[in-house]
Specification:
This protein is about 50% helix and about 20% strand. By secondary structure, the protein is of the alpha/beta class. The protein has a seven-stranded mixed β-sheet. Strand 7 (about 135-140) and strand 8 form a beta hairpin. Helix 5 (about 100-110) packs across helix 6 (about 125-130), helix 6 packs parallel to helix 9 and helix 7 crosses helix 9.
Length: about 350
């Protein structure tokens, strides 16, 4: 699979990525290499990575707890302090080895320590490989509000090695696949259809779909790196999905969900709205709803809870002038942005989750 280049950085696949890392290290001679991991990737992924790295530089490992609840400024402060204590300078390199929390948070930390040091993403989850580690978005949550603090700053490179997927439970593979389905919905109906036939997440065929997903996201990012126009399409399903995530984080008595699970619910909600505001056909909506039904996710919210989530949607970064703005589909494979919808229709759309 050929590398994918987006202006200032490149996405490499499998061993060609580790060759690229070693070439960069040899040419740039970093003073120290910092590897950011969580407790899960330290155990399951770090031992696989280290034999691949060729260097005489000092390697320091910084480990944090895993989970979205640690994607915050407090965690950043701890890592910043560790970096300073371990002698981080402008010639240091940070390698972020983990899922979306690690790459989001690690990219933000690297972009801000010493006013910025170079960093490399090595995503170890499917969600990271097809979404979080591509596009240069780095940041943290503010309380229960998703991704409110951050910068857009690309890594030197992102390395996608599907071998890491063998460390994941099935639930996390399904979780990451949701973003791949989203890529099909916003840009490629054939790709959407191909995803509907996936049965094995560890096959060469699925590796090719990962590659195609990376191409789709990269093409959109290259057109609009700072999310002024078409890149907003990558947030399809996320206005409602992030509100669901934030609401459930606010209410620990409710069962927590993974990011992709919330986004799948958001896709159904925003597809229903697409029928009423963007001309998506009822047949296309039923196709999307049938896919969602096969996932067997259990979401149910009363009208009062939906109103609370509508308030949370107002913090979505796509919004301007106090209006909630959705990305909607006009057909499978085509989108429109900046669509304002009524609260009444949002409430109706949430009822579609009850299956």
């Amino acid at each position: 699979m050929n590398p994918i280049t987006i202006k200032d950085f490149t996405i490499y696949f499998e061993n060609q990525g580790f060759n690229a890392i070693n070439k960069w290290i040899k040419e740039n001679k970093p003073s120290t290499i910092f590897v950011l991991v969580d407790d899960k990737t330290m155990e399951n992924c770090y031992p696989y990575l280290m034999p691949m790295i060729e260097t005489t530089a000092t390697i320091e490992v910084i480990e944090i707890d895993h989970g979205e609840e640690y994607k915050n400024i407090d965690t950043c402060a701890g890592v910043w302090s560790a970096l300073v204590e371990l002698g981080c300078d402008r010639n240091s390199l940070m390698i972020n080895l983990g899922g979306g929390v690690i790459t989001d948070l690690g990219g933000f930390i690297a972009s801000t320590i010493k006013r910025g040091i170079p960093f490399i993403h090595i995503p170890t989850t499917l969600l990271g490989m097809v979404d979080a580690a591509i596009g240069g978005k780095n940041g943290v949550d503010l309380g229960h509000l998703k991704n409110q603090i951050g910068v857009i700053n690309p890594p030197i490179m992102t390395i996608i090695d599907p071998a890491f997927l063998r460390t994941l439970p099935q639930q996390h593979l399904v979780n990451g696949s949701i973003e791949m389905f989203k890529h099909g919905l916003i840009s490629d109906r054939v790709y959407w259809k191909d995803m509907l036939h996936v049965t094995d997440y560890l096959s060469d065929t699925f590796n090719s779909l990962i590659y195609q997903s990376a191409v789709i996201k990269s093409d959109i990012v290259s057109m609009d790196p700072f999310e002024k126009g078409p890149r907003k399409a990558l947030n399809y399903g996320h206005t409602a999905g992030h509100a669901i995530e934030s609401f459930l984080m606010e209410h620990p008595e409710r069962e927590a969900v993974l990011h992709g699970e919330a986004i799948a619910a958001g896709i159904v909600i925003e597809s229903y709205l697409s029928v009423h505001y963007a001309g998506l056909s009822t047949k296309a909506y039923e196709e999307i709803k049938e896919w969602y039904t096969t996932l067997d996710f259990k979401f149910s919210f009363n009208d009062d809870e939906v109103m609370q989530m509508i308030q949370l949607m107002k913090y979505d970064k796509k919004n301007t002038n106090g209006e909630i703005k959705f990305v909607l589909l006009d057909t499978i494979g085509s989108f429109i942005t900046n669509q304002v919808v009524s609260n009444e229709d949002i409430i109706k759309a949430f009822q579609e989750l009850k299956i």
